[in-house]
Amino acid sequence: MAAAAALTLTGCGFSGTQAQSTQPSAAADTSQRIVVDNFRAPVANWAVESDAAYILSLSGCLETLTTYNQAEGKVLPSLATEWKQTSPLDWDFSIRQGVKFQDGTELTAESVVSALNHVLDAKVPARAFNRTMISSVTAVDAQTVRVSTPAENPLVPYRLASVNTGILAPAAYKAEGLDPFGHCTGPFTPVSEKAKQSLTLDRNENYWGGDVQLAGAEIRFITNGATRAAQVQTGEADISLSIPVASLAALKADDGVSVLGADSPRTATLYMNNGRAPLDNVDVRRAVREALDLDALAASVYEGAALPATGPFAPSEPWAGEKQEKQQQDLEEARRLLAGAGYTADRPLEIIAIVERAEFADVAAVVQENLKNIGIPVTIQSKEYASAEPDVLAGNYDMLLSQRNRLIDIADPIGFLTADYTCKGTYNLSHFCDPEYDRIVAEAAKTVDTNERYKLYAEAGQILQDKAVNAWLVNEQSTDAIRTNVLSYVQDPLSRYVLTAKTGKAAS
Amino acid sequence: MLQFITKRTATLVAAVVVSSFAVFLIPYFTPGDPVRKIIRSRVAGDAVDESAVQGLSESLGLNDPLAVQYFRWLGDFFSGDMGLSFVSRTPVVEQVLPALSVTLSLVTMALVLAAAISLPLGIVAGLRPGSTADKAITAVTQALIAMPEYWVAPVLVLVFALKLSVLPTAGWNDLSSAVLPALTLALRPISFFTSALRAGILDAAAAEHVPAARARGLSQGQAILHHVVPNGLVPLSTLFAVWFAGLLGGSVIVEVIFAVPGMGRLLFDAVVNSDIPLAQGGVVVVVALAVGVTTLADFVHRFLSRTVGASLA
User: Fold this and answer.
1) Do residue A222 and residue B259 have CB atoms under 8 angstroms apart?
2) Parallel, antiparallel, or unpaired for β A74-77 and A216-221?
3) Mean pLDDT, to the nearest integer, of B7-29?
4) A239-240 and A471-483 strand pairing
5) Considering only CB atoms, which chain B residues are within 8 Å of A227?
6) Is the CB of A177 less than 8 angstroms away from the CB of B89?
């Protein structure tokens, strides 16, 4: 096995469409500060294993051993300069020399080991880095950290790019919780926090990665999308993340604002219960899919801000495969399949539309109308996801309207494909089980060669498509809005990296 | 009076205990497992790890019988400890007090604004019943009741922040950032205050002592100022307190839209995330304050009634 040999891996991954601000040649005024409106607030006292890590990372405070470059679709060095797989179960990371935490202490192999073990020991484990996939983290010598896995795993460098594996100085880990203030390595140092409101940061004058172009930043926690959109229009914010569809027209008409869109690894999906009649019949599931008018759905409910789906992956994803066909509505074929399967309207179906995504109420109405056209009566129930989940996981449902981030753990879909569709998958909402699919995913999980692995992902995706496991509706877009004087902003669909040393602002 | 105070204090304690128990039960009787909700609030998406569910459940004491959990909390509370938030693991009091101070400021501003606007409107409408001014005021104030906050707030943002650029869209930084949320919250109280004041003025103006005062030589203006307006204000004190109590925990929409870090948002998040100690602590504080304020309003109402009554005798 190739894994036994020493290997330096900078693998390809999800590239998507990425967008950049429009004034790369303008000079940055280094006395400027910037305001970023973020869509979430920290809830877990900055615990690095929680989603608060995203805020610390996007604000240019928290850094990881590796980083995922969206433009190149590769895992690149960050606090580690290189990495090697030294045995089937061990990966050695060389720690960057000369890096200092913002409190003046040195980044060492010991401090990295301590930080990563803190994440491994967390009561609520991080998605990408926990004891089920990592058996130990140890220091080999003063410059080298060894990460060991219980089974051969070619994706360890991807996992070390997860924001949950961010490295903070030992002084940050306190009995009462995590203290990131002055303990990061990034281009910005957090200096104060207004609870539930904002985090203020100053330039890190001693940043290892070069000169920082901004004097400081304020990250505001604005959960309401319309408010974020309004703030970038008034100039109160320079960057507003995750703009809702309803605000796009006003922002696009504003000369002072640029709207950036990128393919998001999220697909709005009509989950079907493959484990219960009548949707346990593949022809009924195919009929449902044939009945849907995805073009109309994308154009109406999503106002063109999402693209009709072609399968479980977005077409821009490198593992999507060649066979990406747009789903065309075919009512005749749908009726034929339904009749062949023996379905009658005596068995109406129910769609659960989760309320966390406001647009799903309208999507459900469109699907209801589409299915009515082929003789399937549908009722709609709106529910909070948390209240629907137990029934869905137990198989007590017909259809669920929800969405899923395929790359929530790492920039590779292995976690999604395993958890959501293998027979023993822990998040198998569709209750799909196919031994051939499981075999392909298991093989992919240990395939080191990136291209080979992606081919296997495409094969797995094709099985999901052929078996009409779910109806994938639209590929969502990640939309950010920035003031036109913001410089060198590169959009990350997952909002992990927003402020970097290069981010700048022209004089106003 | 002592009996009144004792009775009121007992009501306060009972209200706190009953409401805290009700809030304590909510996460257990809403669909979905509380521990999973806590985990999801920290780490969104994907399946919840079963060993994490068990471990967290154990460490938070959520495997104990409900009664044990509740009385443990009650005991801690009476010894001055509101416990730790299940989600952030920080002391509840450290989250509740800042949020409370924000909401108290916001609600006070909203009600002072409402009183300041409704006073002249109510007096004018009450003194000239059936006039064009009365009809216009009644129509406008009735229309305010029909305007939901989730509609009013964006309209105010559109006008004052986006078009006129005179006020910030959101946040809680200085007085200017409080204007739009306070105004949004004030609209419905304006309507109720104006109606109550109008009715009070009408009643007071029709009372026998007003012509008597005129017969004693007071001018029309003096009679209104000394005998009509004070009587008309009496019902407003109770209404003010009722709105104050209601807005303390009922300003969620306004706080979310304007990114105000107050009690409404805190309690909403606490219930959604099954953060039981935070929800309990927040509710106890809100209920205690609400009952306290309405009790105070009762005192004021009695005092005003007696004072005004005495002045009329």
Assistant:
1) yes
2) unpaired
3) 81
4) antiparallel
5) 157, 169-170, 257-259
6) yes
DSSP 8-class letter at A210: S
Residue A173 · residue A162 · CB < 8 Å: no
Residue B82 CA to residue B64 CA, distance in Å, equals: 19
Report the relative pairing of strands A239-240 and A33-38 from DSSP bridges: parallel
Q: Is pLDDT at A5 greater than 50 in this prediction? A: no
**Nearest Cα residue to B233 out of B181, B301, B164:** B301
> Would you say B2 and B8 are in contact if contact means Cβ atoms under 8 Å apart?
no
Q: Sign of the C-alpha dihedral, residues A111, A112, A116, A117?
A: negative
Q: Mutate which of A37, A39, A43, A193 to test chain B, going by most B C-beta atoms within 10 A?
A: A43
Amino acid found at B125? A
Q: Give φ, ψ of B147 to 5 degrees.
A: -95, 110
**B148-173 burial, b if ≥16 CB within 10 A, otherwise e?**
ebeebbbebbeebbeeeeebbbbbbe
Q: E-strand spans in A105-256?
A: 136-141, 144-148, 173-174, 177-178, 188-194, 198-203, 216-221, 239-240
B227-283 residue pLDDT tens? 777 777 777 878 888 898 888 877 888 998 999 999 999 998 888 888 889 998 998
Mutate to test the interface with A, among B26, B38, B42 (most CBs of A within 10 A): B42
Q: What is the pTM of this model?
A: 0.87
DSSP of B33-73: -HHHHHHHHHS-SSPPPHHHHHHHHHHTTTTS-HHHHHHHH
How far, in whole angstroms, is CA B78 from its chain's centroid? 25
Alpha-carbon gap: B271 to the closest alpha carbon of chain A (Å) = 12
What is the distance between the alpha carbons of residues A216 and A200, in angstroms, rounded to a whole number? Answer: 8
Compare CB distances from A227 to B87, B257, B266 and report the shortest one's residue: B257
Q: In 10 A of CB A71, how many CB atoms?
A: 11
Kindly list the residues from chain A whose CB atom is less than 8 angstroms away from the CB atom of residue B33: 390
Q: What does the block give as tokens for A330?
A: 């075919």
The one-letter amino acid code at A69 reads N
Nearest one of A267, B57, A505 to B48, comparing CA atoms? B57
> CB A45 to CB B89 under 8 A?
yes
What is the length of chain A?
508
The answer to whether the CB of B262 falls within 8 A of the CB of B25 is no
For the CA atoms of B211, B213, B218, B221, the dihedral, rounded to the nearest 10 degrees, stands at -60
Answer for the pair A249, A266: CB distance below 8 angstroms, yes or no.
no
Contact status, residue A473 vs residue A309, Cβ threshold 8 Å? yes
Q: Is the pLDDT of residue B125 over 70?
A: yes
Beta-carbon separation of A390 and B32 below 8 A: yes
- Chain B residue numbers touching A415 (CB-CB < 8 A): 46
Our separate counts of H helices and E strands in chain A read 13, 21
Q: Torsions phi, psi of A361, nearest 5?
A: -65, -45
Which of A49, A55, A224 to mutate to probe the B interface, most B CBs <10 Å? A224
Q: Which residues contact A249 (CB under 8 A, 6 or more apart)?
A: A303
CA dist A117 to A76, A436, B99, B305, Å?
A: 22, 37, 34, 69
N-term to C-term CA, chain B:
23
Choice among B22-31, B65-74, B113-122, B253-262 with the minimum mean pLDDT = B22-31
- Structure-token pair, residue A237: 């914010």
